Each structure stands twice: as C-alpha cells, then as structure tokens.
Input
Amino acid sequence: MRAIEPVLRAGPHRDARTMSDHFAAFSFVDRIIELDAARRAVGRYEIPAAISAFPSCLVAEAVGQLAAWVAMAHIDFRGRPVAALANETRFRADAAPGDTLTLAVDIEACDEDAVAYSGSAQVGGATVIELADCLGPMLPVEEFDSPQALAGRFELIRGPGAKPGAFHGVTPLRVVRTGGEAGHSATATLHVPDAAPFFGDHFPRRPVFPATLLLDAQIGLAMSVAREATCWGEGKVPKPARLTHVKVRSFTPPGATLDVEAELAPGGADEATIRLSARMDGKIAATARLDVVAADAAFAARDNR
Amino acid sequence: MAQTEISKEEIAAVYPTVAATVADALGCETEEVTPQASLIEDLNAESIDFLDIVFRLERAFKIKIPRGKIVENARGALSEAEFEKNGIVTDVGFAQLRAYLSEVPVERFKTPTKVKDIPRLFTVETFCKLVVAAQRQAQAAG
Output
C-alpha cells in the first residue's frame, strides 16, 4: 500500500520507439568517476562539438541523470526516478558544444519510493548550473526500460566509460505563439513530435517527452516576454537567473499538444518572476517559476534564444 | 500519530509553517489554506503535491516523514488484511481510520471507503499532526 497512486498522471500511450537510440539520443553521462554509494557521485559528459547548442536545461538533465544512475543502482534497477520536482535551479553560465561537463550530485535520501538530491555541473572548474532540493519519485523500471540493459550500461559508465559523441542534438520544437500581452504574458502551443530519436532513449519501453525539453521551450517563451517588457534599465537585457518550483505532473506522450503560458510579474529593480505553466487536454502538466534579472547587454549573449 | 493525543497547542505551534508550506507548494494564497481544508477537494492538490509538501515540511522542520507511508500509517496496529479487503476499508479499519483522522469532519467519510480515496480525507491539520508525530519521533530518538 503506497501513499497515493499514481505520482504522475499517465498520458495516452503512443509508440515512437527506436532501439538504436537507446543510451545515445538522450543520455548525458559518459562516465561515473567517483561513487560513494547512494550518497555522492561525480560524473563526466563530453558535449559533442558537432551539435549546434546545448541549452542549460540539458545540463540540468545531465545532473539529474547522474542522480538517477546512483538511485537506480542503489535499488538494483527495480525502480527509476522520473523528473518531478526541482525546487531551485540556478543558471550560472552557459555550456557550449565541445565542453566537458563535470557533474556532481549529493544524494540526500534514496529508497524504493524516491530520490532526493542536489547537484551541479562545472566546465573547466567553473560552475555552470546548480540544482537544489530535487525529488524524483521512483516508478517501476520495467515500465520504462530493461533493467538488465540499464545494469549493463551502469557497469560501462562506472568502468571504462561510454564512447562520447552519441548525442546529435534535438530538432527545434514547434512552438507557436497564440496570444498574450506584449511584455506581460504569452500563450503558445507546443507541438510534441510524433517521433524523435530522444523517444528511443527516453524511454525505450514507454516514450515520454523529456520535461527538460518542455522547460527549455517554456523558458524560451518566458524570455520572449521578458525581452518585450520595459522594466529593464538602459543598456540592459533580461537574463534567466533561477528556475524554481518546477513540478511535473504528468507524462507527455509523443504527438501531444501542450498549451504553454508565461506571465511576468515585475519584482524589484531590474528583476522579474515569470510564472510558467503547460496544459495538456486542459489539465496542468507542468508548472515552474523563472526569475529573470537584468544584465549588461554585452554579456547576455545567452538570452538570444 | 497514534501514541499520545496530539494537543491543539502542538498543532497551533506548527500550523503557520505548515500552512505557508502548503500554500507555496500549491501556488495558492496562504489565506486559502485553513486547518480544515482538504488538500485534494478544497485545494486541488494531486499526488505529486503530497510528495512536494512532505519534502518541504521535512526541510522546514528538519524532520523525516517516511515517504510512501502516509496512508500506511493510517492503519495503525492493524494488519493490511484487517484494515482492508479488496481495496475497501473494513469495519474495523474504518473505526481505526476515523480515530486516526479525528480532525476530519465526520460527513467527509464515505462508506464504503476505498483505500485509494483515503488521501482525499487529508486536511492541512492532518499534515500538522504528521509533523508533530515526526518531531516526537525525532525527540524520542535523541
């Protein structure tokens, strides 16, 4: 008898699996170089130089995947955590194609029900992202993936490491702005593709649109609202600083249509919070808040999404 | 939550933080949160919100609330077989549930009660009691 089932609402099943993409099309841990079982781990991921960009949300995904490996190994691959709650993600700098990410996670608690963790990613000793107070409920691994395949992959990345370069990027998502008030709010429709390589990896037995890709699209919409706002000082542009209250409520299947919304509330001087939501079939699928700060235009290249 | 009766004073001591935590987790105004409010029926919480609230309460009070065990706690000393049969709470289980959730107005209990519907009964005060019980447990453990 567990607490409340299900933790995440199930979306309709659609099939878009491509087994050759397993551990390639959406896997961001090449090697685990330190592991203190169920307590702390350090990993590495080489961002392929050939791709065009590696957004911060994928850096966060890499940190989350390292935590997932530690958690799955701890319970012998009976369960896998799914992205659900991330209380705070701080964006410090960008990571670029060709960079090597050093990933670190501190596991606060890990059992058959959930994994709670914090983590970070660094490039060349400089922190690019920090995650605090994240929680992923564990769901039966067999629903999503082969436990044996996962155990085998873990052995590889815990040992010699996987060959880098398997990720070939993500085709830009179709986000169509549908309304809103310039500088204050925006609504848009996000069309999740029917098929994409990442569905073969996320996950082979049950394709789910990665929440980090949804967040990336939502941040893109939010930043378009922020750029239209007039609350920024002379010579300054808005820059994403912090993502808080991330809560993913349901699985998004291939082919789904999401109604996304961003609403800006000005804060103090040169800062604002943008509330983000995504609905599927009228029901809230994910929510988050993005804190945006003003930065000198010359140093804010990352905002040019 | 069984041991000694949890006093109103104990609940009042933790309530402001619990209410603020619930409001933050659900993205609602603190004024909407009342001790008697059902998290699901009145505040539109879903299962993921329960996880979120427990996670936040653990941090706020520096306690440990066993995840996945909230409903299990409701059956107290009863075995699973005594508490429920085919997903329906037995008579003896119902009496235990009423005692465990003494803060929940009687009219909210439905008969027969499905085990999966028990979280629908949980109020903000239920979470206050969980916090107090966890605080007591932590104190007892030294």
Notes: The first strand of chain A starts at residue 31 and ends at 36. Chain A has three helices and 13 strands. Confidence is low (pLDDT under 50) at residues 1-5, 12-17 of chain A. Helices of chain A lie at 56-74, 147-158, 211-228.
